[in-house]
């Protein structure tokens, strides 16, 4: 699957969107309507792969594509929801900052809702990863109106996942949420000051207690997060 996505990406970049998009758009649409989840998953991953090479041609139909992809965040199969998160995250990078300017309202709301998918950690983590992609290239002025809601969701998820780490040793979602907090703080800059005291106790707890070898990545991400939040408080 990864080889296929890589080949699609190279083909789109090499041949150009004017040639590639008309050839594969109909196939992707058929796959997305297929009752077999594997086809829907493959269609969304294909969509993720061609964005860079078909940039100019996809921009004109981006509204249609985004609305379609967002529907799959509600798909009954978790692998399809995962692929929808992947497509949103990739488009947020490939079409930035226009993507953020056009779709901030619907995309932020949809990703935050998907991060509440307690039944599937991989979907939760990938929704957080897509949010990172989105906020990294989001103009500060667009992000500020959503700050309270973002903070509320990120903090509640962090607290819940920290408890899960202590009780079950699961860390995947927590790693991504910590990075999401860092990304939001980095974009919001001084506007993040009021939230410093809300996040810092949990972040310090992670740094002080995540000393095992398997938690090294989480600890590193948390230290990076603190380094980004810290300057906000000055």
Automatic annotation (TrEMBL):
<dbReference type="InterPro" id="IPR011989">
    <property type="entry name" value="ARM-like"/>
</dbReference>
<keyword id="KW-0813">Transport</keyword>
<keyword id="KW-0963">Cytoplasm</keyword>
<dbReference type="GO" id="GO:0005737">
    <property type="term" value="C:cytoplasm"/>
</dbReference>
<dbReference type="InterPro" id="IPR016024">
    <property type="entry name" value="ARM-type_fold"/>
</dbReference>
<dbReference type="GO" id="GO:0006606">
    <property type="term" value="P:protein import into nucleus"/>
</dbReference>
<dbReference type="InterPro" id="IPR040122">
    <property type="entry name" value="Importin_beta"/>
</dbReference>
<keyword id="KW-0677">Repeat</keyword>
<protein>
    <submittedName>
        <fullName>Importin 5</fullName>
    </submittedName>
</protein>
<keyword id="KW-0653">Protein transport</keyword>
<dbReference type="Pfam" id="PF13513">
    <property type="entry name" value="HEAT_EZ"/>
</dbReference>
